[in-house]
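INTERNAL TRANSFER SHEET
From: sequence group
To: structure group
Subject: TTC37 protein

Please process the attached sequence and return the structure record in the designated field. Keep the field labels unchanged so the import script can parse them.
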Amino acid sequence: MSNKEVKAALKSARDAIRNKEYKEALKHCKAVLKQEKNNYNAWVFIGLAAAELEQPDQAKAAYKKAIELEPNQLLAWQGLGNLYEKSNQIDVKGELADVYQKLLELYESGDRQKWCDVCNKLVELYHQEKKYLEVAETWQKLIQVKREEGAEKAELHQLWKKMIQLLKDSTQNQDNKTEQSLLTAFEHAVNSADTVPGEDHKNLYKDFIHCLSKFPHETARLEKACNDMMALYPAVTYPLEVLCLHFVHSGTLSEEALHCFSRLLEMDASSGPGIIGFGIKCLQEKKYREAIKNLTEGLQKTSQCPAAWYYLAEAQMKIHKHRDAVLSCNQAVEALGTPEGLSLRWRNLTLQLKAEALIKIADADAAEEAVKALEQIVDASSDPVVLAIKGQAYLNKGLMDQASKISQELLLSHPDLAESHALEGFIHYSQKNYRQAERSFLNAIERKAETAEYHQYLGLTYWFMSDETKKDKGKALTQFLKAAKLDSYLGSVFYYLGNYYRDIAGDKGRACGCYKKAFDLDGTDEESGTAAVDLSVELGDMDTALSILNEVTEKASTGTAKWAWLHRGLYYLRTGQPSQAVADLQAALRADPKDSNCWESLGEAYLSRGSYSTALKSFRKASELNPGLVYSIYRAAAVEQILGKYENAIATYQEILNRTEDYVPALKG
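Return from structure group:
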């Protein structure tokens, strides 16, 4: 076949393809290849025809042969690209990207429009594959080309916005280069908008700031973007809210941060981040109840702020609401999710605070939970304070050997740490080794004199050590007073001060004041409440006694606060109000149905009311629960006598006299 015949055969193949006679085209091409096996056009036409005949493997092989012959010719690359685009096979995506890359190279010095079309296709392919870095690099090349062509500002603005859309899902698994490309796209987009200020521009700025807030290391950029947006849109609170939350999460509250909180609350008094910021300011100023109020309110509006949950827990710890603090710590851990960097620091701090709160609850279950919390802290074994907390948890669980082992190790490795000596003190105190406990707590105070708990435990050590140290004003009393001065929310220390003034100093008025203070601080402290009521009654101050009892019973749920119901029931009984006495004593029995004395008092209340049958049942129940209650047996007999059941009454009186011959009321009966 001559050169002329080869050209004629190729023309016939081209015409056949144009007329969709693909098999015919293949015949002509094969004829050419018999003569010229390296004919580029013949291989390209075979690729085209085979593709149309749905023979993709043959088409691919033909195009690749053509490319091998002429790697810088367009036709085969275009054909191979079309073939891959129509393919449903996933494994060709990588090869298609290579084809697009080559086409970009071939179009670069020629057809710019086709270059842009291929560039768009390549970016779309990378995006489908979630190859965000490649998306960013390719799209930036496209923008560069458009710039060189003198594209209008509006067109470039749209291209930067498109780049943001392409990369916005990449923030989850971000590498630094992609992240920087996304932020660069945002910066160009906000700076190239036509209408400033305007609604679209404002929303774009919000998205930019929201994106920046996801990257903890972009602090300077975030602060600049927020300040720039505030300058452009002074009535919009969003940048200020983000900035406030950023300051909260950073954990350092500068003058700038406090100014942000104030400014935000001036603009919107109901703003969650603003209220949270004000709550943290109150915490810094030791206004703990105000801090709790504001942080709780702020978190109802902005719940996904782990640092704020931590600060709330810290404030709750300061006023010894330990169970509330545990719940707040749980919320903080949940809001943190899977943390890293600064968030990991917050998680460690939160778990440590949770463990401290659980130890203050002081039961074995809470101690077990404390140990679990401490085990989740990263690098916990290298932190001596965390180890000391773990030692206390073991002590609360009754695991003395483990607690002692930690204590000994800490005293050797960290002899200057107050917590090392305090742990040793707690162990000695629990074993009633008061002399050794005294030495340990004095060592702890020497190293950390501002810790109220150390002074309280030293005071308790003196209280139980001997009568001499209990009565010595310079021992127990001095330590209790120091603890109360250092921590005015520590209810238990006011209870011990009450004990001192009542039992040692004989100052019932001052003692009553201390008990009332202890109970005001901790409404669940029955011992303080009972002591305050008893002393108020003794001092003739029934108003104070009743106000305490009314406050407790109003808040009490069914089956709780027995002591308050019982005390108020007895008061009503004494003051001739039997119906109210019956109601309160019944409430006390719902809390403790096996209290024989309470049943006896209820019998008296029914009797005073004239309910003889129920009075009889109550006295009998009391004597069933405690057969030694002779008075209840006697009262049952007296009621039987009133009801005219004389034989029963005589038998009951006789039963009493068989036990106690000279029991005068029974003889009289």
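Handover comment: The first helix runs from residue 3 to 18. The radius of gyration is 42 Å.
Transfer complete.
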